[in-house]
Every structure is written in C-alpha cells, then in structure tokens.
Amino acid sequence: MGSFCVAIFDLKSNRYSFNALLGALEKRDLIEKIPIYFFKDKSSLLKNVTELLENYNQVILAFSFFTTQLWEIAEIIKNIQKFFKSKRKKLILVAGGPHPTGDVKGVLNLGFDFVFIGEAEKSFPEFLRALKYKNDFSQIKGLAYLNEKKKLFYTGQPEKVDLNFYPPFSLKLNRINPIEITRGCPFGCFYCQTPRIFGRKVRHRKIENILKYVELLLKRGIKDFRFITPNAFSYGSPDGKILNLSALEILLKSLYELVKPKGGRIFFGSFPSEVRPEHVTEETIAFIKKYADNDNLVIGAQSGSNRILNLCKRGHTVEDVYKAVKLIIKAGLKAKVDFIFGLPGETKEDIKLTIKVMEDLAKMGAIIHAHTFMPLPQTPFAYEKPGKISPELLKIINKLLGKGLLFGDWKVQEKLAEKIHIYLHTRSL
Length: 429
Description:
The protein is of the alpha/beta class. Helices cover 40% and strands 17% of the residues.
C-alpha cells in the first residue's frame, strides 16, 4: 500500500488553475514522486476514490472552483462525507481557486480540511512535501484550516509568485493550455475577483520565457497559440495602465518570427483574454494586423453610463469604448464588447444610456457579449443586490439576439446571482 496520492476533480472550467499547479509540481520534481489521478464527473470520482482508499494510506482530494460552481461542489462534498464516513480520516479534502479564496470559512464549513488562499504554485507543492515527510503545515503561507478547537487558523498571506520561475502548465502530464503572460490587475473593479486574488501589481512573464514554452509546444505539433492575461495590451507595462508599445511589439514580433515559419497562428487580445478600451489605439491595432491571426478583439465596456463606470472604478469612459470599437471596425476586425447588466446603483436613466450605447455599437458592427451582475465574495460589491434584467433591457437583448449581434449567459447568471446573494447573506446552502 502506498503512502498517499492526489486525486483531482478535473472539470473543464477549472483546468487552467490545475494545469498551473501541476506545472509547479513538475518544477519541484514531484510529478514522478506522487501519484496523481484525474476524475471528470461525480460518479467516477466516488467510484475511483473508493479504489484509491484501498491502495493508499491517504488520498488528497483536490478541488478548484468558482462561486457559480458552489452548489455542485457542496453536493459532492456532502456525498463524500456520507459515502466515506468510516474512512474519512484517510481522505484529505483541499480547495483552492476564486471561491475558496474569497469565502474561506464558508468553504471549510462545507467539510474541506484545507483551503489554499490566492496563488498556490508555492503553497501546494510545500503542502504535499510536508505531508510526505510528516512536517508541520502551520509554516506554509497561504493555508487555512480549522484547528482542534474548530477555530479558523490562517498561516498568513502567501507571497506573489514569479511567473518566470513556474511553467504555465505541465508538459510531462500533457496538461496544456494558453500561456499566462501577465498576472495581476491595477484597476480593482468593484465586481471583479481578479485583483483580490492576484493583487493589483502586474507581473509579466519574460519574453524569452514565453518563447521557450511556445517552442516546446511547436515541437509537440501545436500550431495555435493563445494567452492568458487580464489585459493583453498591457504586456510589459510597469503599472498595467500605461502602454509599453516597445515591449508589446517585441513580444508579438518575436512570437511571429518563431511561429509563422512553422505554419503556426497567434491569437492575441481575443479569447481567453481581452483588452481595455482605452488601450485600443492605432498602434496596438496595427500590431494585431501585422503579427496576429485573430479576426476579433474582446473589449470590456460593462456599462453605457459614465456614472456607473465611475461607481465600479472601471478607469475608462463610455467615449473610450466608442473610440475603441471605431478603430477595431475600421481595421477590418470584429469588436466583441462585454456588458454587465444590473450593476449596483444602476437607475432607469443608466439603463437607457446602456441601451443606447449597445444599439450604437451594434450599428457600427460590434457584437455584444451580455452578462448579468453576480455578487462575488471578497469584492467590494459582494453584498450588493443581484443583477436583474429590466423589461426595457430584455427588449433590446432579444432584438440584437435575433440579428446575431448579441450572445452570452445572462439568463443563467441572473438566476445564479440570486442564489449567490442569498448564500453570501446567510452562508447557508
């Protein structure tokens, strides 16, 4: 019987988080030393954990999840507690990701044994090493758990990781995803978890480090390259606000020279990342046209009201959005524009302004990506009312939807927003 193994609940929506952690384990030479298993649904998880418990003294069962997944995860943990009651001491339930980071006590109360707060590239390998050698957990920063008296014990703020030290994914396990090139966001929008999890200071992966992983992927036959960043055009910026056009062009040019001769393609400023409207300029658009292959840029407008943008601390204006869309369309690219409906403090006048902007942008040729505001833990808007779609807004949504000029999960998000609101006010599922 082996000492312990790691079992990962491997949902598609959480793969990027786990891939980064697996890259960190690879960096620390733990991939070969610790058996790792992946389970993609609830039934296979319960079935296979039963087998693992017969073969190992302990099984670390790891989850990473968003607030929108809370109910699914809570049900699984409830079933685990019930199903493995007699063997519960052999199971170590650990959680990380956006929701656990923002709702530490709530997640521990669900039945988790440990919560990894914020970035876990350093803390998770240290935790596994401590378990392997029976060392003390209390010295590992970024870890929270309930002590013997059922009181919350927090080991302290983890240090922000250097992206250049850690791989963006695990090559040995073939867990590949877009390359993370920037982490952190200086803007601190009141509805967003990103700056609360990763901090407001931007950290960039160096160009030579990015190219190293692009080259390794090319050798594996991968031809399409995408990038994870809160704001693609901020690459190389010292503060994430002021453009560093030189660094941005050097990155894109270097990627182009490496990828193009081998028949590869570069997608930059489109899914899974976006760009801020005020960073869409003639120069940044020219870089996309010259070096990248995407036919669209994703920009965040969020509201058609400057008053609401100010309330959210967005850091840009409605006029910036118009200007960005105009430049994108003029360059022959598609503009995909994010809007969040039902933001806190929104009045009927704000809704009218948003409707007008949406109609204007659609006439210009933009496509609207519709979202409903969801209160999320750890954000300044965590305890605000959930977003609601007004009748006036629904009318324009349906109109644009019928013309193929709008898409999104606003309906699902509206229902989830209500559930999240009730949970955050009661901490009861």
